[in-house]
Amino acid sequence: MLAPVAQVLQFALLIGAFVAVLEGWLHYHFKYHERNWFIPAAVLGTAALVVFAALWTAGGGVEAGRVVSLAVGTALAECLAALFFKHVVKGRHSLPFMLLAPAMLGLAALIAYPMVFEVYLAFHDLKLTTIMAWSRTGDLPFVGLKHFRKVFTSSPLSEVGFWELSLRTVWWTFINVFFHVAGGFVMALLLNSVTRFKGVYRMLLIVPWAMPQVVAVLAMRGEFHSQYGFVNIMLSKTAAWLPFLKDVGVGPVQWLGQHPFLTCTIINVWLGIPFMTVVILGGLQSISRHYYDAASIDGASAFQQFRMITLPLIRPVLAPAVTLGTVWTFNNINVIYLVTGQAGGTEDADILVSALYKAAFAFYRYSYSAAFALVVFLMLFVSSMVWLKWSKGSESLYD
Questions:
Q1: DSSP class per residue in 329-372
Q2: 359: exposed, middle or buried (C-beta count within 10 Å: 0-12, 13-18, 19+)?
Q3: What is the pLDDT of residues 190-232, one digit of tens each?
Q4: 318-344, pLDDT tens digit by residue?
């Protein structure tokens, strides 16, 4: 019972100690940069501290050659850092640096290091046959662009190839984002015109987005059950009330077995509309009523007001929201994984990120998956930059 709590406390103390050492290191470099002994003391002290931390972490079982290499590398790095603080920083802006440093190092550990390691894996060969040698020696065979070529020429799955997955992913993203924006616009316009019970309506609307996505997706998955799901029950009752609908094929559907992609799309549309509604509603409420009053006096119709006032003024809010929605939908493995049970199951609903997950954790193709992830990242980055440039979403309203 107390063991997990103790582990959490130990981790917290370790993080606290690291932050304290970092702040002390920065304080020394800001306060004593003008002293004659500043650089020698900084080099010796930092090298000794790093070597001590390495020996303490490894329990003393470190080769002498590695200790010497670590000490020399640390001394050179500290010498450069001390010269930078002495001749460039010169003690200025100490408080902002000391406040931001822990957060910046935390981001570097959580984002920069995994990204660098992923690039390293993409150009090397890590798989089941090489992972044991890598764990012993730390070395991996260099294969260059081999895995990047395999991304485009071989299938990450057993049946579906990269290009088919790409087209399906684009289609998945377009359909979801289109209905997110369209549905969000309609709901936001309706809520913006409501005068009574606004809080109740907004609370009900935000429920699908506010609840944990796992709970929401699994709850909706149950509604598409072939026998007991709400959707099929309503289809059966509707066909019973209106018998002519049976002649056109209306009735229970094997959603998860025959139409997994459609099922995932419907659920994801339901999940994404509340977010767009909240964003668009915030933008609509920031538009002054004076514009609409003046347009009404000039005889503008409701559609003309929407086209000439609402759309231009909502653009600075809508363009970044669409960009975020596109990235999130493109990378949304949660819905597909939870709805279809992606432990190696059906491939009919797979998109790029779910295929990437399978390649890494079902087929253990680690380096191939790293190259695959970099390709997906570049696709998203380029498309997002093009969209922001075309939509002028990074500009303010008055630019």
A1: HHT-HHHHHHHHT-SS--STT--HHHHHHHHHHTS--HHHHHHH
A2: buried
A3: 888 777 777 777 777 777 777 888 888 888 888 888 778 888 8
A4: 888 888 888 889 988 888 888 887 555
pTM assigned to the model: 0.75
C-alpha 19/C-alpha 26 separation (Å) is 11
Sketch the domain layout of the chain as residue ranges.
2-92, 154-364
**3-class secondary-structure state, position 124:** strand
Contacts of 354 (CB under 8 A, 6+ apart): 333, 336, 337, 342
Q: Do the Cβ atoms of 220 and 270 come closer than 8 Å?
A: yes
Measure CA 100 to chain center: 23
What fold, for 154-364? MetI-like fold (1.10.3720)
Question: On the CB side of 125, how many CA atoms lie within 13 Å of its CA?
Answer: 10
C-alpha–C-alpha distance, residues 147 and 2, integer Å: 46
The angle subtended at Cα 233 by Cα 204 and Cα 226, nearest 5°, is 105
Q: Say which DSSP state 109 is in.
A: I
